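Sample pair:
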Amino acid sequence: MTFSLPPKKTVPEHQADATLSQANPVSATWYTVLDTVLNTRIIGISTNITWATTQPTPLEIKVTIDGQTVTFTVANPVSATNYFARIATEQALSAQVLDTVDYARERAFLLEGRSVKVEARITWATTQPTPLVARVKYAKY
């Protein structure tokens, strides 16, 4: 009887969360939450924005995965409310959802790919003293 060893890293290894806390974000500027990593499984993404005077619109997360762009959006975010990336099968990749419900408990992971990068941005008329916050839970093979 012959035995062979399993391939290395057949199970993804969890990594420390990638985080962003950007004070005074500039309108329409993409900020890196998770810089490009290889052979990665995204378990979940959360984000929020707290504003002083002007409501931003929209709040967006962009995931570049194997050369494809997946954009998660909430049009009118509520101040200091956590939003979670959710795949909406009926929507185009450019129109995925940021939702107040964290569906991470209902699935093994959100996305995975050979090359993954996660960015966040907010759009508004004026910059104000406001933190843009994001967190990515991920694992690497």
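The two ends are 29 Å apart (CA to CA).
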